[in-house]
Fold Aldehyde dehydrogenase.
Amino acid sequence: MTALPADLSTEPDPGTGAGTTGGPSEQQETFDSLSPITGDVVGTHPVHDEAAVRSAVARAREEAAWWGGLTFERRAELLSTWKSVITRRVAQLADLMHRETGKPHGDALLEAALAIDHLAWAASNAAKTLRRRRMPSGLLMANQAATLEYKPLGVVGVIGPWNYPVFTPMGSIGYALAAGNAVVFKPSEYTPGVGEWLARTFSEAVGRPVLQVVTGLGDTGAALCRAGVDKVAFTGSTATGKRVMAACAETLTPVVIEAGGKDAVIVDVDADLEAAAEAVLWGACANAGQTCTGVERVYVHERVYDRFLGELTAQARLLRADETAGAQLGPITMPKQLDVIRGHITDALGRGGRALVGGADAVGERFVQPTVLVDVPEDSEAVQEETFGPTVTVTKVRDMDEAIARTNGTRYGLGSTVFSKGQGPEIAERIRSGMTAINGVISFAAIPSLPFGGVGDSGFGRIHGADGLKEFTYAKAVARQRFKPVMPLTSFRRTEKHEQQLAAMITMLHGRTPTLPKADKPGR
C-alpha cells in the first residue's frame, strides 16, 4: 500500500485528549513530539495502526448519523460553544503551538484568532449556503417543482500540516463539521498535541466524539485514506499530495488537496514601495518562511527596482531568528527542511545570484536568518521549487507583461500579490493562481467568505467560504411533479403532434441568433 511520509501531519500535546482513539499504553507503540527550539520532548503520543484508524472511522460513522441529523441551528449552537471554549483558552493553545512548532507566541495567537473567526463564519453561514432552496424549472418542465440542497458526505478524514497546525486544518475541520459531517483528524507527527487539544475541547463543548484524532507517522495517514472515509482533505507538499491521491484511489475516495506554492509579488511602477517592502518581508519571513502562501519571488518594475531593494534590505537587516524572546523569527520546525533551504541558496549563488542579506551562512542548526537574493536565474531551484524558508528572490522586469509571464512561469498556482495604485485588478486578473491580494499580502486567507486553494501543482478543491462548505457535501436535486404535463414528452404516449409542438417551442425559445456587440464578435 502507499505509505505517506512523515512531513504531513499536525501537532503534539502532552497526554491524551478526549475524542482520540485512546492514549499510550504499555503495549502500544508511541512517538515523541520535540521542541524545535531545544530538542526537548513536548509530549508522547500513540502510533495508531490501521485497526485503530478503522475503529475511529467506524465510531465517526455512528456519530455522523446523529450530528448530520441535527438542524443547522443546533449545530451552529454547539460549534459556537466550542468556539467559546477555544477563545477562553487561546493562551493555552498558543503556548502549545509555540512549544511544538517553535513559532513566536504572537504568531501562534494570530493563527488561533484567525481559526476562531473562520469557525464562527462556517457555523453561522452553513444554513444559508447549504439549506434546501427552490430552483427554476424552465418552460419545458413548468409542471415540475425543483429543489436543490447540499447534504453532508458522512465522515471526512483530515490530514493536517505542522506549519499552521490550527488555522490550516480548521479550514477543513470547521467547515466539514458545519456542513454536518463527523471528522477524523490526523495531525502532523510534529504537532500531535495540538490536534489532541482541539478534539478534547470539542468533546467538552459538544459531549460526543464527532471530532476524533488519530496520531502517528505516515502509515497512520495512509490508513486513514483507506479506512472508508467519504472524503480526505489534505494539506502538505505536492509530492505527498500525490501519494495521498494514490492511496485514496484504491477506494475511489475523493480528495481536496492544498499542496505547495511558489507565490510571487508583483511591484508596479506606481506602488507604495515602503508598504510593498514591508509586506514582502513579512510574507517571506513570517513563521520562518514556512507558509504555503508565503512570498518566495518578487518581480519589480525596473524604474523602481533599486528603491524597492533599498527598502527591503534595510528592513530585512532588522530581523533575526533565534531562541530569544524578542526574535521575530522562530526555528525551522522540520529539521530536514534546512537542507532544502541551504541547497536553494547555494544553487542560486552558484549560478550567478547574489545575497544582499543573509546567504549561505544564514542556515544554522535550527534557525535560518532572512535572506534576500538577486540576479537569480529563472530556472534555478530558488525560483522554481518551494523553499519553505525565510528567503526571497527579487528580479527586475521591463514591464508588467514580463512580470506576469514570470509569475505564471512555475508549475504552482496557489496565491499571489500585486502592489499597484492604478492597475492592481487588471494585473491580478492575468495571474494564474487561486488567490490574489492587492496592496497587501496573504489577506485572502484571513477573509472567511473567500475560498482558499490553488491550481496546478498547488492542488485542487477549496476550503473556506461557501465553496469550502460545499466541498464537504454532495448536491441533492429533487424534481416533484406538480401537475400533469401539457405535452407527455417522457412517455410512450407521445405522438408526432407532440414532437412537432416540441420542435416549435424549442425553435421559438432558442432558434434566434443573438446580435452580439462588435467587441464580442468572433475575430474581434
User: Anything to note?
Assistant: The radius of gyration is 26 Å. The chain has a mean pLDDT of 94. DSSP finds 16 helices and 20 strands in the chain.
